[in-house]
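Async update (no meeting this week)

Hi team, since we skipped the sync, here's where things stand on the single-chain job. The sequence we agreed to prioritize is pasted below, unchanged from the tracker. I ran it this morning and attached the output directly underneath so nobody has to dig for it. Comments welcome in thread, and please keep replies under the output.
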Amino acid sequence: MVGRMIEKFSSVLVAIVLLVAPFAGANAQTVTAGYHEIVIVTANGGQLQTMFEEVGAWQVIGTGNVDRKWLKMWDVGAAAKYTLLANPGSKRGFVRLIEFDGTAAPLIRPNDQAWDTGGIFDFNMRIADMDTARMALMKRGWSSFSDPVQFSFGPFVVKEWLPRGPDSVRIAVIERVKPTLEGWPNLKKFSRAFNATMIVADITEARRFWREGLGFTSYLEHKSGSREAGPNVLGIPHNMATSVIRDVSILHPQGRNEGSIELLAYEGATGRDFSGRTSMPNRGLARLRFPVEGLEAMVVKLRAMGFEVSDIAVDMPLSGVGSVNIAEAIAPGGSKIDLYEMAD
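Output:
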């Protein structure tokens, strides 16, 4: 009887929150900006740190031991240390490396192809010079499906390359060819991280999570194959590039390409599904962290929509930000999304 009463009360509470939310003001449940940082779990943080410092001209802005509160939230017994990296001068688009003690855990996306679904596929950085970056990365063992490819993207001409390195971490490095890139004063070699891609099996459900659940809006919507057969950054066989359709949505809280997420689904190419491998301490691109206002209402809303969200962990120390309350949501495709609000 008590259990049924609690269940009935919970259902009424969800209904009330969903009814009141539209009238509670713009900040009732809002993701306030694009992702603040991307978290990478690594077996050897020194390798990735050196790459970012020497190839990307990034710098370390924080190091330390991961607080026990985080380990409890992740249900991980091993201790861990972190290194926080940034493009100098940038206030967001950070990379946080986490290295757990003991035996290295499995990879999230081992030996993956671009059409394998699940988890975070890559994250994007602008670069100053593709040839220099490519040579420096290849010397350190990074490789890709293809050489850099130049193509037109709306009014822009760019070169893009998708190299993968330690812990199956893949980055997308993009050089603007024309028009001249403006508005990135801190770009020396690598810019801050500004976009992250997820390969999804059900893009309709993924859009529902990001648009209706988190309130993101479109920066770009595109669906087509390549204009002509030949090389492409995703490694699709040249003769199939025109027939394999890519359905793309780039989404952001304010509709910008700045801490945005990119959903990608294929028609005509299928592969493995890694969506069940994204929990800590598995290695690779582990999660994105977004600042929010109205965290409690957001948790209730996402759960009411059928999405899995953890209980809110309070007063969590997040270096570079402060003390936060945080909940972990699971996006379609298994990607872990940390939603955090300042604790005070």
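Quick observations from my side:
DSSP finds six helices and 17 strands in the chain.
The helical segments are 2-20, 45-54, 68-74, 130-139, 203-213, 295-304.
Reply here if anything looks off.
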